[in-house]
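Lab channel / #folding
Pinned by the channel admin:
"Please post every new chain as: sequence first, then the C-alpha cells as a reply. Keep commentary short and put observations after the output so the thread stays searchable."

First post following the new format, from NK:
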Amino acid sequence: MTSAEIRKRFLDFFEKRGHSILPSASLVPENDPSVLFNTAGMQPLVPYLLGEKHPNGSRLADVQKCVRTNDIDEVGDNTHLTFFEMMGNWSLGDYWKKESIQWSYDLLTSLDEGFGLNPQRLYVTCFEGDSNAPKDEESAQIWEEIFKKNGVTGERIYFRPKEKNWWSAGDNGPCGPDTEMFYDLTGDLDKGMTLEEYLKADESQKVVEIWNNVFMEYLSKDGKVVEKLQNRNVDTGSGFERVVAVIQGKNNVFDTDLFTPITEHLRENPSTSIIKSERIIADHVRTAIFLIADGVVPSNTDRGYILRRLIRRAVRHADLMKLPPNFLPTIIPIVEEIYKDIYPYLKDGRPKITSEITQEEERFRKTLSDGMKQFQKLSTENISGEEAFTLFSTYGFPIELIQELAKEKNIKVDVTGFNNAFRLHQKASRVGAEEKFKGGLAGTGEMEIKYHTATHLLHQALRDVLGKSVTQKGSNITSERLRFDFAFERKMTDDEKMNVQNIVNEKIQAKLPVQKVTMKKEDAEKTGALHFFGDKYGEEVNVYFIGEKIEEAYSKEYCGGPHTENTGSLGKFIITKEEAVSAGVRRIKAILE
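Reply from TO:
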C-alpha cells in the first residue's frame, strides 16, 4: 500500500463516519503563541478543544503538517524526523471511548477499508490511575471485548503510569487518560506478553506506537484534577511516516516511498555513501522546503534560526558525502513530485524555495571561510575545548572538521572539553525549546486574550499606514507583550510608528465590539476578511470582526479566537520596538498599559 493510498484510506474511513475533513493548517501557528511551529495535530484546534464551536461540526479529521526540532540530534536513526505529518480525528463533545477505540481498531486492522494490519500483533496500554484520577477500567474493558470478539488471545492490555498514559497541556486546563496502540514489528510476539516482556520489547523497539487516543474528561488546576468536564473531547492521532513504515513492512521511515526517491537521488551522484548523512540531508531539506513554502525565511532568531540550522546541517552532511556545491536544490522537484497531489503549492513556491536554500548555502560557505581564518590563528600546540566550541557555535565547524584540520597541523583537540561545553549548550537550548515547543492549550489567560485582540488592530493599522502589501508572517504573544512579524521591505520611520500606535489607541478608545460570525469560505472571502496562512480552511470559517457590522468593520480576519468582547478593555497600546527579522520581514513589539 503506497503512502498516498494510506492517507486516502484514513480520510475516507473517518469521512464515512461523519467527520468533516480539514486541510492541513500552515506550519506557522495562527493562534497559538506558545510555539514557533505547529508541533502536533491538535494545535490548530486549540480554541475548539477549549469550547469554541467549530464551523465544520463536532467530528473532524485531518492530516496535519508538523515540525519539531528538540530531538534534531536523533535524526538519522530509524524514526526521528524534523518534519512529519499527524493523522488525527476529533470528537468535540460528540462520541466517546467506545466508538473511538472501536474505530481505531477497525482502521488499523480492517482489510476492506483500513490498513489491514494483523490484530495478533497489536498491544495496548491504558492509564493505571493515581491519587488524581481513577484507573481507566472503561478503556481496558472495551479493549477486552474487542480482542475477545476478534479472537485475539494472550495478554495484550497493560496499565501504565501517568507519565506514559495521561495527557495534559500543562498545569491548567483540559486533561485526561489515553490509550495507546503498539504493533509488533517482528511478528514473533503474537501469543501475548507479560508486562515485563512487553516493557523489554518496547525498549528494544520490537513494538512501536502506531495510534493514540486521548480522552479529555477532566479539568486540572495547578497540576491537580479539580472536576470533570461537561464537554468531553476525544483527540486521536498517529505519526503518518511511522504508520507508513509499519504498513510497508519497513523497520525505518527512510525506506518508505516518502523518502526513497530522495535517497535514490543522493546515491545516483558520485559521493561517499554515509547512511546517517543521507537520512539527515533527506529529512532537513524536506523540512526546509515546507517551511519556506509556508513563509519562513532563514534568519538568526526564532523560526528563521531553526530553518537556517536545518539548511546548514544539510550542507555539512552533503560535504561529508562529497556531493557537489549547490546540490541541495536538486532535491526540491523530487519532494514536489512526492506531494504533488497533497500540497501542489510546493511547485508554485519553487523559485522562492530554491533561492532561499541556495543563498543560505552561500552564506554558510562564507562563514566557513571566515572560520578557517580563525582556525589559523589558534595555538600551534593544541586546541582547547573552549576554542573548539567557538569554532562550532560561531563559525559552524562540526567537531569532525576541527579534528581533521588539527590532524593536518599535527596538533590535538580537547574533545572532552568541547563535549562538556557542547552539553551545556544543548541543555540551555533544550530549556529554550521546551518553552518554545511546549504546545498545548496555552495563551488563553486574560492578558493573552487582550494581546490577541490588539494584534488584529495592529495588523490593520499597519496596512492603513504602510499599504496593502503588509501581510502577517507570524506572531508571538505572552501575558507581558505581543510580537508581530510582517512583510515589509524597509525600516519604519518614527512618524509611521507613531501613526500606527495612534490608530490602534483610537480604536481602543472607540470601544468597538469584537464579534464572530461563521460563514461559508467563499462568502468570507467576499467580505474582505484577511487570511495569510495558505489554503488551510474548511468549507466554513470563523471570521472575527471589530466594529458594529462586518461590512463596516475596522478589522476582519479568519481566526479561531479567543478575543475580548470590546476593544475598550485593552488599555493603552505602546510600540516598544520595530526591527528587522530577515530580508523583507519586520517585527513590532508592543505592550498594553
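NK: Residues 433-442 have pLDDT under 50 and may be disordered.
TO: also worth noting, The longest strand covers residues 224-239.
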